Amino acid sequence: MKLFIETLGCAMNERDSEHLIAELEQKEGYVLTDRADEADLILINTCSVREKPERKLFSEIGQYAQIKKPNAKIGICGCTASHMGADIIKKAPSVNFVLGARNISKITQVIHKDKAVEVDLDYDDSLYAFESVRSSGIKALLNISIGCDKSCAYCIVPHTRGKEISIPSDLILNEARKLAQNGIKEILLLGQNVNNYGVRFSSEHKKINFATLLSELSRVEGIERIRFTSPHPLHMDDEFIEEFARNKKVCKSIHMPLQSGSNKILKSMRRGYTKEWFLNRVEKMKSLIPNLCISTDIIVGFPSEEESDFADTLEVLEKVRFDTLYSFIYSRRPHTLADLWGDKWSVPKDIASSRLRTLQARHREILQEKASQEIGRVYEVLIENTFDDGAMRFSEGRSDNNKLIHINDECLKIGDFVDVEIVKNEGGSLFGRVKRG
Ligand code: 5AD
Ligand code: SF4
């Protein structure tokens, strides 16, 4: 039996797909294929955070239905499954089952029931022991919480992933130890608001916060690097920042989703922090961590955003000089507060597009300015891939602060830690030379 799976959206979804594959391979005997037309089961693990990709889902289902083997099943999993439920089967009768984001532990049941719809938002699989993911390489994803308790006015996620529940720390630590025994050197901790860890457990559990979890994980022998995504700026208290800065195993790159630099917009988005708090947290981190890289998410064109609000966002961009920017035009989503406002304060599409272009253009300039300063810097790089094109052997890896660096060297193997000096920057791609001796 062959399984084809397409994964859209974020790292959470990637992790869910790993779990779906592990359950199906080890309990149901499936093997993965990258060809939908030869699969017996086609899964789409969907994202619903913006409207456009979600709209494309139905044409995609239509395409799979046309090319699939006659008895092959189609299952829709993930966030769109959560919030559309049975409507997916109504709109696309070729779909055999619908499995919502926090119900994926039921995969081995739903594949045997035609037209099953499992989208219970209160379902809790935070204690479920998924079959082990056969990870190759040296990096692994590790869930520390499920769901999201926030109510950001634009965001559908609380409605697709339900309330926030932390996974007990002994389960997380055991998993980390197991990963280390299998040769994993770097873990990426996953949750919707990782630094809110410990607020609610579904079983008796001692109160431990994210800073303590980081500290405990860093004592796992063999795990050399710890990353995490996504933290929330609101929960970046001093204790968290100090542990982040102090702990040598915690990589010095952080995602700080700004969303907007305007206090008026942040308030109507219900983000819970101000521009001043955000900048203050950045300042504190930068003062403790000289090489820190910061990435962010920004939405333009949120209802009632005026030029002056957008100017505030540009001001934060100027001050923080983010290393990576993910930027989006506001997309109206069902089950959100902002959806209830209708078109009352909508920003015209052309204005939103023009703000997005301005933001991205200024960010490109900032990146160019920053890139020129990279030459001569030395980073400790963990080699993640090696390539051999016949004529040449080359490698790539990441610095602690998450820069991808290409290295032309004969002797490197996946898993090596090497000091690399940056020698060239080609349109943002960094090339380095191993420093020996
Ligand atoms: N419209 C546009 N962007 C959105 N995001 C979340 N919801 C929306 C929306 N309705 C963005 C946010 C979030 C990232 C994952 O997606 O910036 O941080
Ligand atoms: Fe991830 Fe959010 Fe998309 Fe769900 S809706 S897959 S949580 S980005």
From TrEMBL:
- What's in the keyword line of the UniProt record? 4Fe-4S, Cytoplasm, Iron, Iron-sulfur, Metal-binding, S-adenosyl-L-methionine, Transferase, tRNA processing
Intracellular or extracellular location(s): Cytoplasm
- One GO CC annotation: cytosol
Describe the reaction catalysed, as an equation: N(6)-dimethylallyladenosine(37) in tRNA + (sulfur carrier)-SH + AH2 + 2 S-adenosyl-L-methionine = 2-methylsulfanyl-N(6)-dimethylallyladenosine(37) in tRNA + (sulfur carrier)-H + 5'-deoxyadenosine + L-methionine + A + S-adenosyl-L-homocysteine + 2 H(+)
- EC number, as in UniProt: 2.8.4.3
Domain TRAM spans what residues? 372-436
Pfam name, any one: UPF0004
Which domain of life does the UniProt lineage start with?
Bacteria
Asked whether the UniProt record includes S-adenosyl-L-methionine among its keywords, one would answer yes
Cofactor note from UniProt?
A: Binds 2 [4Fe-4S] clusters. One cluster is coordinated with 3 cysteines and an exchangeable S-adenosyl-L-methionine.
What GO annotations for molecular function exist for this entry?
4 iron, 4 sulfur cluster binding; metal ion binding; tRNA-2-methylthio-N(6)-dimethylallyladenosine(37) synthase activity
**Which top-level enzyme class is recorded in the Swiss-Prot or TrEMBL entry?**
transferase
Q: Where does [4Fe-4S] cluster 2 bind?
A: C148, C152, C155
Q: Pinpoint the Radical SAM core domain residues.
A: 134-369
Q: Which cofactor does it need?
A: [4Fe-4S] cluster
Q: Write down the InterPro entries for this protein, in alphabetical order.
A: Elp3/MiaA/NifB-like_rSAM, Methylthiotransferase, Methylthiotransferase_CS, Methylthiotransferase_N, Methylthiotransferase_N_sf, MiaB_methiolase, rSAM, rSAM_horseshoe
Q: Which residues bind [4Fe-4S] cluster 1?
A: C10, C47, C79
Using the record's annotation, list all stretches that form the MTTase N-terminal domain.
Answer: 1-116
The record's note on quaternary structure and interaction partners says: Monomer.
Q: Which NCBIfam families did the record assign?
A: miaB-methiolase, MiaB/RimO family radical SAM methylthiotransferase
The family note in this entry says: Belongs to the methylthiotransferase family. MiaB subfamily.
Write out the function statement from the record. Catalyzes the methylthiolation of N6-(dimethylallyl)adenosine (i(6)A), leading to the formation of 2-methylthio-N6-(dimethylallyl)adenosine (ms(2)i(6)A) at position 37 in tRNAs that read codons beginning with uridine.
What is the protein's name according to its record?
Answer: tRNA-2-methylthio-N(6)-dimethylallyladenosine synthase
